Amino acid sequence: MAIIFSSNLKQMPQVTQKYEKRSTMILAFGSLMLLSFFLPQNPAMMLVINSDWHDGFHHPLEGWDHILTMIAVGIWAAQSRGQAVWVLPLVFASVMSLGGFAGAVDIALPYTENIILLSVLLLNVFVIRKIQFSASFNILIIALFAFFHGYAHGQEISASASLISYTAGFVFATLLLHGTGILIARLVVLALAFSVGNNVQAQEAAELINATPKAMTEIKPESGKAKLVVFNEMRVTERANSMIGIADSASQGNVGQAQIKFRPITRPAEVLETIPGMIATQHSGEGKANQFFLRGFNLDHGTDFLTQIEGVPVNQLSHSHGQGWTDTNFLIPELIETLEYKKSIHYAENGDFSSTGSANIRYFKKLPETMVRFTGGSFDYYRGLIASSRALGTGNLLYAGEIVHNNGPWTVGNDYLKFNGLLRYSQEYGNHGWSVTAMATKSDWKATDQIARRALQQGIIGRFDALDPTDGGSSQRYSLTGEWHHRGENSITKLMVYGVNSKLSLFSNFTFFLDDNEHTNLAGCAGLTGLDSGRQFNPALFNTCGDQFGQPDDRWTTGFKGSHTIFHTIGSVDSETTFGLQVRNDNIHNALTRTHAQRRTGITRQDTLWVTSISPYAENKLTWTDWLRTSLGLRFDGFRFDVDRSNIRQNMGERYDGLVSPKFGMVLGPWADTEFYLNGGLGFHSNDARGINTRIDPLSGDSVRRADPLVRTYGAEVGARMVRIKGLQSTLALWWLDIDSELLFVGDAGTTEASRPSRRYGLEFANYYSPTDWLTFDADVSFSHARFRNKVPDEGNYVPNSVEAVVATGATFHHVFGGFFGGPRLRFLGPRPLVEDNSRRSDSTILLSAMLGYEVNRKLSLQAEVFNMLDRNDPAITYFYTSRLPGESADGVRDFHFHPVEPVSFRLSFTLKI
Description:
Elements: H1 17-23, H2 25-29, H3 35-38, H4 43-46, H5 51-58, H6 64-80, H7 84-104, H8 112-129, H9 135-155, H10 163-196, H11 213-216, E1 252-256, H12 257-260, E2 279-281, E3 291-294, E4 297-298, E5 306-309, E6 312-313, E7 336-343, E8 357-363, E9 371-377, E10 381-392, E11 395-406, E12 416-428, E13 432-446, E14 451-452, H13 453-457, E15 472-487, E16 491-508, E17 549-570, E18 573-596, E19 599-625, E20 628-646, E21 653-671, E22 674-686, H14 689-693, E23 710-722, E24 728-739, E25 743-746, E26 751-754, E27 758-772, E28 775-788, E29 805-816, E30 820-829, E31 845-855, E32 860-867, E33 875-883, E34 893-900, E35 905-913
Parallel strand pairs: 5-8
Antiparallel strand pairs: 1-7, 2-3, 3-4, 5-6, 7-8, 9-10, 9-35, 10-11, 11-12, 12-13, 13-15, 14-34, 15-16, 16-17, 17-18, 18-19, 19-20, 20-21, 21-22, 22-23, 23-24, 24-27, 25-26, 27-28, 28-29, 29-30, 30-31, 31-32, 32-35, 33-34
Helix pairs in contact: 5-10, 6-7, 6-8, 6-10, 7-9, 7-10, 8-9
């Protein structure tokens, strides 16, 4: 456990002009706040204006660069005061119309996109720093940037469109965005005046230098009136007894680098297995997003568990392969400073996908030395990593690069190749700081998906063979994140804006020959479907026929997060109040295609869609006594789901939905070094935008009922955290979760399945014991019970693939006998029902792995890892459904389908620190 308090405390003065200037950082990042209000179309307006005006109006609203610039112009104009409030927007709109004409007549201008990007950066810097020039120079800057923005708009006009109508449209939209910026500036000033006007005085620093968290609330000045203290930074980096007095629930925790670096890890997603009860596995090639299990859920590829990196959501809405797609292959475990997890739905800052919980992964901003690591291992596994940081100007530059190759034990090797990189620049100025982080990853792979058990039993294929060796995929992810934080004498402000571009091209075949796409006569595919001259099935010949489908997905995700926490008193009670706002927009192009050997033969559905959400929230925490704390939160989530284009016209449409979710928490104690928790609240999960608007089934052509946009979830938890025994922290949680309907968009079929309402409850018992400073044991046990709440005749009420028991335990040691480190780790995933009547169940999975390393000196270390030490033949994951092999009836056969765990394997790493 490490709690870091990172600068001096000061007595609270009255609000100074300097503090007010710093707070204007809110204005820059707040430019995304009203994004979602401009994206919806007004049907009434569309009746009185033509499509050219409509296209022009929407073009500035479809790019984050244009939106940020236009709103920044409005904020800058408001900061300039006087006539500039209306002069700068009018100059921008006028010159932009000239640029639009230049773009429409196709005048060649170099570096247009570069200048537009420069305008985004410079204007926001001007706003952040409140930089002003002379009136004429301000106008010159605005005119320059306006011309290039208009030029970009003009280039998008179609040859048949009216230039006047199109120009009028984008000029009107621009003026609206300018007005939004002016409004934001005015509202923020009012909000600051209101909130700061209610501040109370802070405790003097000298009284608190050596105070404990408990003592801090008890120290009083001579007047006898309680004073408040705000720490500039508090960061929990390990599990330890200091979670007493900090945690809001028994299922909240932190994992630091010390817990990660001594664990054997086969793939990046396994860092999430440090969360008690979480299992990460794989049913396909290494480049595909992992499967997750937690709290009675088969989370598929991430649905109902919110994963974030530096606060940026990783879960992807309306993804081609499933709602909530969570690809964590871009993670670099060595850079993780801390992983903060919060289970259940009683946290106001978490919304969509967080019904079972959330995790926020934070990277280091500075490394103590340059790290160079090379790893080689079984099945052509190679990995190279370089990571370093250095002072640059008044800040710090962090950079890292990674290359990974893995073939795996499969007959058709994965040939997985990943390039991964990170670049971060950060600065800290005492009580405030900022950082900009860029990440990029690109990978491609071949896949051996799950296989039918009967194919293995009949000797058609081997355990590591593929029934369709042409499966595989490629992906890429590029992101840019900017964050700013300020630690005032009675407040904390955090702002963050992000943009993510991600692409996936995925090819899968789970039913083999059940549909066979265009080929219904297996004899006509002899020699092509895998039947050799002796009529024996040979997977190597399977290259054109079968049920393979493609799932391309290309999207831009942009968003804003802001929170402002005020520390004050209500009467004599210490209080902490947080106001927050989250805005997110996804512009998505995806499809479900019919393919043979990754060659497209048809399209089942193809869509362009927008998903926009705005989520304000508020939370108040009260410390009533030294043994009673409460929290009360309220969150609103408003969504817009718009299928803008579709190959099936009837499936286009636009829908809105919103939910208010209250949250509550109570902490009692500590008594005998034990705290007790009671938490509860309402949450939700969103459905795929395509399922929400689908009226015609893409496969059958039948009419279907549209799915509900948002589905309510209800949860509660009772727990305890005990640190009575020295070095041991134990947490016990009894939890419950109801879902109104387990809506699921099935990307493999292009349809929505709305299952029955369900109920889950369970128990989690987590233990973390450090008898010495060099040895740690951990043991986590989770049990859960999942059932559908309403019974259907002739059907059971078991929830398929709901995990029932998970056990994870291990030990880590370091600096033993002069430099040895490592430890073993055991993971157990219990049997699960695979169908509603529980007549088919999966086998359990047991994996034992270990690491042993030696630190030769401060510069050089070696480590060896061994995975699946018992060489068990367990399934990594199991399903039960209908598929068809060559020679079987057209109706196919219901069977177990599984993906095997990898056999025993080894990896050896060399690490050099410079």
